[in-house]
């Protein structure tokens, strides 16, 4: 492949959009996914007009068939060479345990946990074969602590850190790294209505910078999970 490659899920908005755009600017061939076709088409035009290498795929990560198609398209577009996988797509449900439903449980697990598992399971062997690669799972401070009303979200984000630990242990002998990034409030549509002003939140670009920093480390260096807090709070 002429360019380094990156698959970014949830690339139509917020953190994923910022990460995908930043990697495109750094010369990566980026595959952006999400359900919002219009947003993906706009990004494709924007990137191509800037001479960047981009592929997009409309994909609902709660559907296993869509995830399988995403894996096939990624392998074909990147010719089986994936440098960075960013499992970023996610949804949040905030309600007391009694108010949550088993259907909501299944849905949030499918998007926030099952799809990162399926994608990592497919991409890790490719990275092991090429003897390098970085898997970034976007967890949360709600994957470190749980609070009243965060049960479903916290369950998925704690578990994502568990997946990351095993990915790192199994990838390390082959030069493959895995890191979970656990931010507090990041200024995106996901936290519209939060009791913190957007300008006082972590910015999506801070997550991009963290991924670039991880990628820049020498082959033997890796961090543990990265907890990024908002100055003066979560
Ligand atoms: N914002 C925060 O304060 C914060 C803090 C800690 C962690 N995080 C985590 O950061 C990640 C990104 O969140 P964000 O804040 O950037 O939120 P966002 O702006 O709402 O973006 C969420 C992304 O996930 C995608 N997505 C949601 N459901 C999907 C599905 N079923 N299939 C495919 N894609 C789906 C959305 O794309 P479509 O709508 O196009 O499908 C969108 O691109 C999430 O995992 C979130 O839990 C956020």
From TrEMBL:
<dbReference type="GO" id="GO:0004316">
    <property type="term" value="F:3-oxoacyl-[acyl-carrier-protein] reductase (NADPH) activity"/>
</dbReference>
<dbReference type="InterPro" id="IPR002347">
    <property type="entry name" value="SDR_fam"/>
</dbReference>
<dbReference type="Pfam" id="PF00106">
    <property type="entry name" value="adh_short"/>
</dbReference>
<dbReference type="InterPro" id="IPR036291">
    <property type="entry name" value="NAD(P)-bd_dom_sf"/>
</dbReference>
<protein>
    <submittedName>
        <fullName>3-oxoacyl-[acyl-carrier-protein] reductase</fullName>
        <ecNumber>1.1.1.100</ecNumber>
    </submittedName>
</protein>
<comment type="similarity">
    <text>Belongs to the short-chain dehydrogenases/reductases (SDR) family.</text>
</comment>
<dbReference type="InterPro" id="IPR050259">
    <property type="entry name" value="SDR"/>
</dbReference>
<keyword id="KW-0560">Oxidoreductase</keyword>
């Amino acid at each position: 492949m002429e360019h380094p490659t990156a698959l970014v899920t949830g690339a139509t908005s917020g953190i994923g959009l910022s990460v995908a755009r930043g990697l495109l600017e750094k010369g990566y061939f980026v595959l952006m996914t999400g359900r919002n076709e219009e947003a993906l088409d706009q990004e494709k035009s924007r990137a191509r007009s800037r001479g960047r290498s981009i592929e997009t795929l409309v994909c609902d990560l709660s559907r296993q068939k869509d995830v399988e198609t995403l894996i096939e398209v990624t392998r074909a577009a990147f010719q089986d060479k994936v440098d960075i996988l960013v499992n970023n797509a996610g949804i949040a449900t905030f309600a007391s345990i009694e108010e949550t439903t088993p259907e909501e449980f299944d849905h949030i697990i499918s998007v926030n946990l099952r799809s990162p598992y399926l994608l990592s399971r497919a991409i890790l062997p490719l990275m092991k074969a090429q003897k390098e690669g970085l898997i970034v799972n976007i967890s949360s401070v709600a994957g470190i602590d749980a609070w009243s009303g965060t049960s479903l979200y916290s369950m998925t984000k704690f578990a994502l850190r568990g997946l990351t630990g095993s990915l790192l242990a199994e990838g390390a002998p082959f030069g493959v790294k895995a890191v979970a990034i656990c931010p507090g409030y990041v200024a995106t549509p996901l936290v519209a209505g939060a009791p913190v002003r957007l300008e006082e939140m972590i910015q999506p670009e801070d997550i991009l910078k963290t991924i670039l920093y991880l990628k820049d480390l020498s082959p033997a260096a890796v961090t543990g999970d990265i907890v990024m807090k908002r100055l003066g709070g979560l």
